[in-house]
Amino acid sequence: MAKTVEDFNKRRLRSSNITVVISIALVLFLLGLMGLILINAQKYSDYIKEQLVVNAYFDENYDVKDSVKIAKLEEETFKKIQTLTPVKRATYISREMAAEEARKSMGIESSALFEENIFPSSVEVALKPEYVDPAKIDEAIKQIKSTKGITDVKNNSTLMVEVYNNLNNILKWILGFSVLFLILAVVLINNSIRLKIFSKRFIIKTMQLVGAKRRFILKPFIKEAIILGVIGAVLGLAVLFGAWYYFITQIGTPFAQDNNQLIILVVCIFFGGILITVLSTIFATWRFLRSNVDDLYYS
C-alpha cells in the first residue's frame, strides 16, 4: 500500500513538473516570437527609411573648357557628402547617367530627341534612419546643401514625414504588444508555479513546525525552480527558432537579422525565464511559510 501511495505521489510530482515546464516553454516561445517580430520590424523600418533618398544637384551650366575642373570639383564634393554625419550612403549620377535614366523613364531608345548632357549631374543621398525624423531632416538637408559645388537639394519631405510617422506608429504597437506579452508571461508562469507549490503546502508547513529554517526549506524549491526554468527556456527557444526557420524557408524571404540583437534576445529569454520561475517559487513558498496551519485548508 505504501509503495502504491509513493508511486502515486511520484507520478503526480512528475506530472506537475511536466506541466510547469510546458507552461514555461510555451510562454517563453510566445514572448520570444514577439521579440523576433520586433527586431525584424525595426530592421525593415530602417531599411524602408533608407530608401527615401535626397537628390543633391550640381550646377548644370558650365563651360566645356572647364569640364576637367568641374569633374574634379564634383568628385571632391561627392567624397565630402559621403563623410557627412546624416548620410548613410551616396551614389554619384553623372550627366550621361541622368540622360540615360530620363530616356528609360520616357520610353525613348534614341538619344536624338534631346542633347545627351541636358540634365545636370547629381548625388543621390540615402539618410540614416534617425535623420528621416521630421525634427532632424531639415538639418541634414542643410548640411548637404551647404557642401561646396551643390546648387540645389530636392526631396519629398511630405512623403518622408508620412512614412516616418507610419513606421513609428507600427513599431509602437508592436512594442506595446511585446510589453503585454511580457506581463502575461510573468502572470502565467507565476500561476503555474503557485499551483505546484500549493500542492506541497502541507509539506512546507510540516518542515517548518519540526524546526527547519526558512532558508533550508526554500533551498530545494529554488534548485528545482532553476532546473525547471532551464529546461523550459531551452525547450521554448528550440521550438521558437525551429518554427522561425521553417517560416523563413517557406516564404523564401530572408528576414533582416542582427546577430547581436538575436544573442541579446536569447540571453534575455533564457535568464528571464529562469528568473521569473525562481522569483515565483520564492514568493509562493514564502506565502505558506508565513501562513498559519488553519489557513492551509482555505488557501
UniProtKB/TrEMBL annotation:
It comes from the Bacteria. Residues 177-292 form the ABC3 transporter permease C-terminal domain. It is a multi-pass membrane protein. Residues 76-153 form the FtsX extracellular domain. It is found in: Cell inner membrane; Cell membrane. One of its GO terms (biological process) is cell division. The keyword Phosphoprotein does not apply. Keywords: Cell cycle, Cell division, Cell inner membrane, Cell membrane, Membrane, Transmembrane, Transmembrane helix. Its main location: membrane. The keyword Hydrolase does not apply. The chain crosses the membrane at residues 20-39, 170-193, 225-247, 262-289. InterPro entries: ABC3_permease_C (IPR003838), FtsX (IPR004513), FtsX_ECD (IPR040690). Required for cell division and gliding motility. PANTHER family: CELL DIVISION PROTEIN FTSX. Belongs to the ABC-4 integral membrane protein family. FtsX subfamily. This is Cell division protein FtsX. It comes from Kaistella solincola.
